[in-house]
């Protein structure tokens, strides 16, 4: 099944989420910070949250009903009617009452029938807002924007008032399937077929892989197909180019372009995500004369690496690593959809004739150092994915 092993399936079980949320909750004293640290279950264990348990992150996980442990599931999304606000999961749910009365399931087709549950057409399901209500996250007390994927999309060229021109979240993410990354830089062909055994033939069946950029969790659960889809998505997101004219002045000018993502690159919890540039310049004998963004033996990144991310602050300009303490945004360096950022590196003043310059853009779901600190060293090794590369020989 497509949804199985997706991050929606794992939203509660996700080891990285569990260990991170426990770690961030520890030692907090400020009641406002505690409120935030206890709010995670609203999106990560939504079925449990709306049915009464867990109410907070620190509730005993062994007591959470099996169904709720399945994360963001079919019934949850298909019982949604609207969203009261487009952040912090404002979904309005009209669930059924178990097998006797499964309730109305809502979806995108006007002529659906089911022997089992009532089916209703829902325009809401065809819109980005159903995704956006969870994919926009604000601090529950300080209102700091923690994740803004929906807003980034809404302000992008993929949004249009004209419904026929608008490319929704579903328009990319629910067109993706193996070998079809369906990003802004590729075709997004329709997926014709039938939605149920005896249903009518449709010109497009929305796929439910919900693959973003995370290759680690699917792989950990033996789903190599989804891991591969995440890699392929990342490899159709960005482009790098080197301005060769500037090399005469020993200046390396690199353009990093967001070609494929319908939101900033990277997006989501970008205080954790890492996307960075690695530069290696070798002279004609193969000796390294300039480098930037190389990893050390632990795969940790250097302080001066060019990295695209966000950094939160404590309200007094000091960086904080705990979202519960995020009172301000100190840095937000990411690439808007269909836009570029330019990086300039000063190369050493030597004769570059015969030199080779290689620039690579890499992605990792979180800093390896953070993962080692929270989970123990060597427990989880996050994959490092090359998104794009540019090479010049002088
Ligand atoms: C994160 C929310 C979400 C989850 C989880 C989810 N769906 Fe959907 N589903 C949607 C949306 C949104 C659409 C419609 C997309 C559109 O019209 O743009 C849809 C469309 C459908 C359709 C219509 C036919 C089609 O494929 O185009 C069916 C059937 C369906 N989903 C079944 C399921 C089943 C079964 C599961 C669990 C295995 C599931 N969904 C999980 C959001 C979800
Ligand atoms: C034009 C195609 C396109 C549209 C529209 C689009 N996305 Fe994406 N999305 C991508 C690509 C490509 C990636 C992989 C690169 C990246 O991580 O940003 C991605 C990645 C993601 C990720 C993983 C980010 C990470 O690094 O953890 C999430 C979450 C996501 N999208 C959600 C959404 C939501 C929600 C919407 C609608 C508000 C949306 N996307 C609209 C193409 C699209
Ligand atoms: C109930 C809240 C909720 C709704 C509704 C929702 N999502 Fe998500 N989504 C999440 C959470 C939480 C995660 C991350 C789970 C984790 O990593 O533990 C996630 C993960 C994802 C990812 C994978 C990100 C990655 O890093 O690889 C994609 C892609 C995505 N969602 C797209 C969508 C789209 C498209 C929709 C609308 C059809 C949608 N989501 C609706 C909460 C939601
Ligand atoms: C309003 C909904 C919402 C709330 C509340 C929320 N999250 Fe999330 N979370 C998401 C979405 C959406 C994603 C996926 C974003 C992406 O992949 O870029 C996510 C992804 C994550 C991930 C990444 C998991 C991985 O495997 O890469 C971690 C860790 C995480 N959340 C921790 C937390 C913690 C800790 C809290 C509480 C302090 C929390 N979240 C509260 C929506 C939410």
What's the quick description here?
It contains 13 helices and 18 strands. It has about 400 residues and is an alpha+beta fold.
Question: Would you report the number of β strands?
Answer: 18
Biggest β-sheet, characterized? 4 strands, antiparallel
Whole-number average pLDDT?
94
- Write out the strand line-up for the largest beta sheet, numbering strands in chain order: 12-11-17-18
How many distinct domains? 2
Shape: globular
Helix content: 10-25%
Task: Name the poorly predicted regions.
Answer: none
Beta-strand residue fraction: 15-25%
Quaternary state of this entry equals single chain
Chemical compounds bound to the protein: heme C
Q: Work out the radius of gyration.
A: 23 Å
Distance between the termini: 50 Å
Helical stretch tally = 13
- Coarse structural class: alpha+beta
What does this structure look like?
The chain has 394 residues and is an alpha+beta fold. The chain contains 13 helices and 18 strands. The chain folds into two domains: 7-211, no CATH class; 233-393, Immunoglobulins (Immunoglobulin-like), CATH 2.60.40. β7 and β8 form a beta hairpin. The longest helix is centred in the first third of the chain and has 11 residues, at 15-25. It starts with 6 loop residues before the first helix and ends with a strand. The mean pLDDT is 94. One heme C (HEC) binds next to α8, α9, α10 and α12.
């Amino acid at each position: 099944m497509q949804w199985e092993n997706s991050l929606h399936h794992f939203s509660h079980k996700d080891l990285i989420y569990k260990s991170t949320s426990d770690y961030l909750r520890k030692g907090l004293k400020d009641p406002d910070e505690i409120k935030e640290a206890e709010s995670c279950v609203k999106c990560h264990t939504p079925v449990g949250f709306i049915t009464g348990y867990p109410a907070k992150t620190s509730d005993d996980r062994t007591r959470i009903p099996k169904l709720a442990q399945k994360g963001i599931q079919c019934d949850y999304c298909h019982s949604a009617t609207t969203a009261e606000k487009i952040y912090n999961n404002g979904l309005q749910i009209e669930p059924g009452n178990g097998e006797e009365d499964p309730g109305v399931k809502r979806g995108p087709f006007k002529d659906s029938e089911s022997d089992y549950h009532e089916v209703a057409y829902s325009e809401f399901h065809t819109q980005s807002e159903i995704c956006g209500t969870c994919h926009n996250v604000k601090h529950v007390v300080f209102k700091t924007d923690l994740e803004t994927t929906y807003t980034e999309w809404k302000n992008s060229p993929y949004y249009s008032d004209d419904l026929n021109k608008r490319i929704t979240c579903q328009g990319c993410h629910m067109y993706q399937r193996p070998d079809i990354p369906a990003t802004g830089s590729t075709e997004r062909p329709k997926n014709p077929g039938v939605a149920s055994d005896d249903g009518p033939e449709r010109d497009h069946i929305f796929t439910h892989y919900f693959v973003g950029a995370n290759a680690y969790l699917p792989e950990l659960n033996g789903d190599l197909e989804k891991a591969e889809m995440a890699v392929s998505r990342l490899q159709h997101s960005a482009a790098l180019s080197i301005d060769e004219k500037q090399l005469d002045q020993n200046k390396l000018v690199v353009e990093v372009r967001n070609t494929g993502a319908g939101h900033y690159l990277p997006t989501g919890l970008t205080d954790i995500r890492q996307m960075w540039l690695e530069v290696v310049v070798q002279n004609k004998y193969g000796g390294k004369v300039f480098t930037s963004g190389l990893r050390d033996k632990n795969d940790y990144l250097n302080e001066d690496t060019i990295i695209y991310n966000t950094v939160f602050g404590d309200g007094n300009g000091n960086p904080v690593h705990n979202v519960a303490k995020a009172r301000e945004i100190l840095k937000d360096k990411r690439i808007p959809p269909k836009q570029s950022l330019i990086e300039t590196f000063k190369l050493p003043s030597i004769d570059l004739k015969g030199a080779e310059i290689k620039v690579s853009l890499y992605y990792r779901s979180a800093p390896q150092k953070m993962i080692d600190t929270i989970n123990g060293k060597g427990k989880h090794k996050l994959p490092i994915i090359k998104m794009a590369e540019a090479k010049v020989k002088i």
